[in-house]
Amino acid sequence: MEKTTRTATTEETVLKGSPQEIAEPIVGKEQTFRAAPKMDKSPLHGMWALTQRDLRKWYKNPILLMMSLIQPIIWLGLFGKALNFAAFITGSGASQAQINQIMLSTFGTTSYFSFLVCGMLAFVILFNSAFGGMSVVFDKRFGFMDKALTTPVSRGTIVMAKVLQVTIRSLILAAIILVVGAALGMETSHITALGLLGTFGAMFLMSFGLSSLFVMLALRSSDWQTQMAVINLLNLPLLFASNALFPVKIMPSWLQTVVKFNPVSYANDAARQLLIGATGANSLLIDFGVLIVFAVVFASVSIVLSWRLLSK
What is the mean pLDDT of residues 233-251? Predict the structure, then answer.
């Protein structure tokens, strides 16, 4: 009885407090709850978070960076220096003025090496963009894609994050190749800040479109061997059916028609006009117009397909 009386007395003492005193702990908890940070659900925040994740894996692995640069540097150092068209023309007994005239009419510049350096920018972007779809395959295979699909981030944002990280990587590699080319003897007298900005603008559009294409092809695949087969099927035709290595005018007529439908050719044409002052096959307006349409169309298609092919 005594114990029951003490308990009742304690409860009465607590309840005797004013309503304000009783409500204070509740208000304090409510204020603490309201002060909790809100989740940022904006598409840009989610896109950058996913892009940064893939970029971190890349720049923290210097071996991967070096492997990406070895092949184009070999092309520049061996192929570019060994294939000296001016020396071939000199062997025919032509004067220096005639050699320069022939080189200008054929390559748009007197230096084939400079012509090739611009093509190597597209070369490194093409191959890096092609392997961008592999990250989608591995993310699906190891379960990260399933985790990403359970977040508030939309499927289109996930795909665009993949495209964006590949594009950033490609532009960094292209900048390194341009520096290497200048160190090996590329003609730099025509290079300006505006020309560099325009060149990398064209390369950005080409990379964005190509990355969207290869990511789109990887959306349904969970087998890396299938994706590698697709890469090998498309990479070399896109390279050799363009003006990356040789001018269009020395190609067969049927191949010249194919080159006109290859976006890599328009990026190369713009880069050569802006970097080395070469005479372009098209105006810069046409080059950028084609690249913009190419990037927008394939980015849009990849987003639409992500809604259908990526499932939670």
Answer: 89
Neighbours of 288 (CB within 10 A): 18
Residue 29 has pLDDT above 60, yes or no: no
Which of 233, 45, 227 has its CA nearest to residue 132?
A: 227
Cβ contact 46:152 at 8 Å: yes
C-alpha to C-alpha distance for 274 and 194, rounded to whole angstroms: 8
Residue 242 in contact with residue 271, Cβ under 8 Å? no
pLDDT in the model for residue 7: 47
d(CA 196, CA 11): 79
DSSP state of 283: -
> The tokens of 211 are what?
């990355």
DSSP calls for 9-25: HHHHHHHTS-HHHHHHH
> Residues 110, 195, 162, CA angle at the centre, nearest 5°?
115
Identify the CA nearest to 159 among candidates 196, 208, 111. Answer: 208
pTM to 2 decimals? 0.79
Q: Answer positive or negative: Cα dihedral of 63, 235, 297, 311.
A: negative
The two counts, helices (H) then strands (E), for the chain are 16, 0
Residue 18: pLDDT over 60: no
Average pLDDT over residues 178-187: 90
